[in-house]
Each structure stands twice: as C-alpha cells, then as structure tokens.
Amino acid sequence: MQTEKISIGDIPSVIYGPVSDKAFLFVYGKNGRKEEAADFAETACGAGWQVLSADLPGCEKPEKRELGEAVPWNVVPELRLIMGYMKERWKSVGLRANSIGAWFSMLAFQKEKLDKCLFVSPVLDMEKLILSMMKAVSVSEERLKTDKITETPFGQTLSWKYLSYVRENPVTSWTAPTDILYGGGDKLIVRDTVELFRDRFNAGLTVMEDGEHWFHTPAQLEFLKMWTAEILL
Q1: Residue 194 included in any domain
Q2: Which CATH number does the domain housing residue 227 bear?
Q3: C-alpha to C-alpha distance for 187 and 162, rounded to whole angstroms
Q4: Runs of H (alpha helix) within 90-211
Q5: Does any domain span residue 28?
Q6: Using DSSP, how many helices (H) and how many strands (E) does the chain show?
Q7: Is the CA virtual torsion 130, 135, 141, 144 positive or negative?
Q8: Among 2, 45, 111, 141, which residue has the fewest nearby CB atoms (within 10 Å)?
Q9: What number of other Cβ atoms are within 10 A of residue 145's Cβ?
Q10: What is the number of structural domains in the chain?
Q11: For residue range 123-154, what is the model confidence (pLDDT) as tens digits?
C-alpha cells in the first residue's frame, strides 16, 4: 500500500493510500501505535479515502521522542494540531478511533465538523469507568483525593488529577455521524453506556456478541473488517 511519512510539528505521522480529497484520522487505543491503522486503511483506501495516523503521547516508537504520558492534557492538544493540518490538506475529514482513543477524540473534536466517525470498543463515559475501577479496589474519592495516585492490581493507575480533569471537561456535544462496533463480551465498557450514547447522539450501533474489548481473534477481525466495509463501501 502507498504510504507517506510526514511530521506534523514534531509528531511522526504516516498517510496511507493514493491522493484523495478526503481522509480519516485513525486514533488508536492504550499502548497502541500509528501502524495499527494499516488494516483499516486497506478498506478505507479502497473506498476512496486516505488514512492518517500519528504517534501520540505515551506511545512506543523508534524515534524515542519524549512525549510524556498518554493523558488527556497531553493528547488532546496534539490531536487538535493534527486536525488543523488535516483540514488544510483535505476537503473531508473522518475519524476512526479505538477504545480510549475515542474519548480523547471526543474531547478534542466536539466542535469540529467530521463527515464520518467509526468507533470500535469506545470509552464513552470516562467518569463512570474510573468510578467503577475505584469501586473494584475499594478506593473512595476521599482517599484518592488525599493519596493523589493509587495503583491497582489490574495495572491501571487511579489519579485524582485525572478524575478532576474528566469532571471539568465533559463531552456535552457530539454531532458527527457515528457508527459504533461493540463486543458483547467487553469487560471494560458496559453495554448500557454504549446504548445511552447511541440514544443521546443518534449513533449507529453494531454488537458482535462474541466480541471482546480488544478485537483480535480471526473471527473478530473478520467481523471488524466486514463492519467497516459495510459502512464505507
């Protein structure tokens, strides 16, 4: 597949596909990397789109650029910088985001005009997710406020600064035409949250009952590919 490596500011990025007047921004989830966009690009480029993916704060990459942690106050400004570049280069811009990448994107792009949006296993209510993690490890808000940071047995760091940011920066508007793919076996995002978002923002919702938060088995990846093709082709 045709690729073009660029830098947006000092953000290493890659563009997939032949020249077009429309492009998707691909935003990966936790511990992701920009090259994950390649599978999506196979379908999107076949439908006439290009795909741009960029290294965001906290990712692993050979450039070793010091970006800090993958927290919203680091990620959101970079996403907005990337979107500014895309609006200058392409007439139409879409969004394809995974997991926490969807939440970062909603924070960054609430006021943007996006022509199409595809979310896979999206984090849609970060406050609810954090509170559920706190409950799972019996950490009260008072304790978290005092301790500032608490490590959990399941590898997540609970942060009072992070929770405060979430509450101070709610997603109150989302107008982009959006389709969501959700796995019925998702142990991170509860189904009610996705259905509430669907109803509130008039989104499309497809559920793969045998799917998980991370679509990775051959059957799940094939379902993901077919879902993408049905929307774009």
Answers
A1: yes
A2: 3.40.50.1820
A3: 22
A4: 99-109, 126-136, 141-147, 160-168, 191-201
A5: yes
A6: 8, 10
A7: negative
A8: 111
A9: 11
A10: 1
A11: 999 999 999 999 999 999 999 999 999 999 98
